[in-house]
Each structure stands twice: as structure tokens, then as C-alpha cells.
């Protein structure tokens, strides 16, 4: 997740949508006062190699703490901090209203059927005895199978732009024009090699898996017009 005061944007990072690559690219145009959340050690090395700014300014200001945040401090669990996959509701609560209202907010979404397969292989990358795809999509937590909470609050979209993963390069170019950045934002390669089955999702998923994902991700499917 990135909040750039330099370019007046808020990037909300969803699951399995190329977010790390985009975060690496965006960190190259950020300023010292921007909020940049930490990545995995391997990706932080990549960020350093491409000249991006590393994590900074992640502590939530004390004056933005809510009752539940103060309870964490009272029980010795430390201050609240922005992190990689913080959702829209928490970001809105922790930022000044003027920033949330006036900065360009965006996230990335991906075809839910394709994303579910990517999530399956990433989550179970170290497992030798994997459950079936059907069992996985039936039991995985909602915030993992659906990205809606990263760019919506109470089911209503609160970002200015939901970029499509399938046309990410073109979407990023349009987003850059919206924030007034006239340079080229090139995505570095930060892809995981955990996915072993590279067949199209239509060949991997059967009717049952298809229906479960359609039901659990119905809002984003309707929102962006995804089809199986």
C-alpha cells in the first residue's frame, strides 16, 4: 500500500493482482514523506536494485487512533501501522479526511476464476498433500477469495479507479495521466513461480468450482463484467 503526497494518490493493494510489481514501480516516483509499506525481503532487495524508495512513514498518527487501536497499545501490542494489504475501511479511518477525499484512489482487480487458481498455488506452495481445488475455494476465507474489501466499504466502491489486471499496462498509463505523472511507469518482474498449472482457468475449473467462485465473488464479477 502506498499513499503518495508527492503525486496525491492512494494505492490499495489487493491479493494476486500484480500488486507487488506495481508497488515496486510506484516506489520509484514516490517522495520521502510518502507512506510506503514493507514488502517481503526478496522484493525489498528488488526495490533497492531498481532505485525505489523503501518502507517509510507507516505508523498511524496517534490522533487518528480509534478505541480499538488504543486497546492494542494498552495491552502492549504496539501502535497501529499501515501494512501491505490494508483494506479501504482502515485506510479511510487512519488518513485525514482531506487526503482520503482529494487524493486519487485506485486498486487492481483480476478475473476471480483465474485469481482463485493463482491463490491456490501460492497458498499451498509448500504443501505436498494439497486439497482439491473445490475444497479450497469452498473453505478459504472470504477476504482471500474476494478482493472487494480492498476497494469497497460495505459493498460500495470507494476508489476512483479499479484497474483491470488483464490490461494492466494500458490501465497504468491511464492512471498516470489522472495523477498528472507524465513519465513512463514500467513494471518490474516480481512474479511468483509457485503456480505449477499454467492452463487457462476454463480448463482447470469444473462446473462446481466455477459456481462457488461466482457466488463468493459475485459483486466484483458484476462490477467489472467478468465472464467465465
Word description of this protein:
This protein has 228 residues and is of the alpha/beta class. The protein has 13 helices and seven strands. The chain has helices at 19-27, 41-49, 67-74, 88-94, 97-102, 112-123, 133-139, 142-145, 148-151, 168-179, 201-204, 207-216, 218-224, and strands at 2-4, 9-12, 35-36, 104-109, 152-153, 156-157, 161-164. Strands 3-1-2-4-7 form a five-stranded mixed sheet. The protein is globular and about 50 Å long.
Topology readout:
Blueprint lengths: L1 E3 L4 E4 L6 H9 L7 E2 L4 H9 L17 H8 L13 H7 L2 H6 L1 E6 L2 H12 L9 H7 L2 H4 L2 H4 E2 L2 E2 L3 E4 L3 H12 L21 H4 L2 H10 L1 H7 L4
Parallel strand pairs: 2-4, 4-7
Antiparallel strand pairs: 1-2, 1-3, 5-6
Helix pairs in contact: 7-12
How would you describe this structure in keywords?
single chain, 228 residues, alpha/beta, five-stranded mixed β-sheet, two-stranded antiparallel ribbon, 13 helices, 7 strands, 10% strand, globular
Please give a quick description of this structure.
It contains 13 helices and seven strands. It has 228 residues and is of the alpha/beta class.
Overall helicity: 40-55%
Name the shape in a single word.
Answer: globular
Helix/strand structural class: alpha/beta
Q: How much strand?
A: 5-15%
Q: Enumerate how many helices there are, as a single number.
A: 13
Mind telling me the C-alpha Rg? Answer: 18 Å
**What is the average of the pLDDT values?**
91
Low-confidence stretches: none
Q: Can you count the beta strands? A: 7
Largest sheet properties: 5 strands, mixed
Strand order of the largest sheet: 3-1-2-4-7
N-to-C series of helices and strands: EEHEHHHHEHHHHEEEHHHH
Amino acid at each position: 500500500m502506498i499513499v503518495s503526497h508527492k503525486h496525491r494518490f492512494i494505492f490499495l493493494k489487493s491479493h494476486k493482482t500484480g500488486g507487488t510489481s506495481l508497488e515496486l514501480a510506484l516506489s520509484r516516483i514516490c517522495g520521502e514523506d510518502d507512506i510506503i509499506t514493507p514488502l517481503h525481503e526478496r522484493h525489498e532487495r528488488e526495490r533497492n536494485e531498481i532505485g525505489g524508495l523503501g518502507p517509510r512513514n507507516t505508523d498511524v498518527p496517534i490522533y487518528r487512533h480509534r478505541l480499538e487501536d488504543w486497546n492494542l497499545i494498552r495491552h502492549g501490542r504496539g501502535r497501529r501501522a499501515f501494512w501491505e494489504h490494508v483494506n479501504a475501511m482502515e485506510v479511510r479511518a487512519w488518513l485525514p479526511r482531506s487526503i482520503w477525499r482529494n487524493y486519487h484512489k485506485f486498486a487492481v482487480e483480476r478475473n476471480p476464476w483465474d485469481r482463485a487458481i493463482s491463490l491456490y498455488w501460492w497458498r499451498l506452495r509448500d504443501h505436498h498433500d494439497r486439497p482439491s481445488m473445490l475444497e479450497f475455494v469452498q473453505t478459504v476465507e472470504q477476504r482471500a477469495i474476494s478482493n472487494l474489501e480492498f476497494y469497497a466499504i460495505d459493498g460500495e466502491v470507494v476508489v476512483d479507479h479499479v484497474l483491470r489486471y488483464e490490461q494492466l499496462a494500458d490501465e497504468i498509463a491511464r492512471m498516470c495521466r489522472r495523477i498528472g505523472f507524465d513519465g513512463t511507469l514500467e513494471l518490474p518482474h516480481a512474479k511468483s513461480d509457485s503456480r505449477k498449472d499454467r492452463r487457462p482457468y476454463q480448463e482447470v475449473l469444473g462446473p462446481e468450482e466455477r459456481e462457488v467462485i461466482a457466488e463468493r465473488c459475485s459483486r466484483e464479477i458484476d462490477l467489472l463484467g467478468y465472464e467465465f
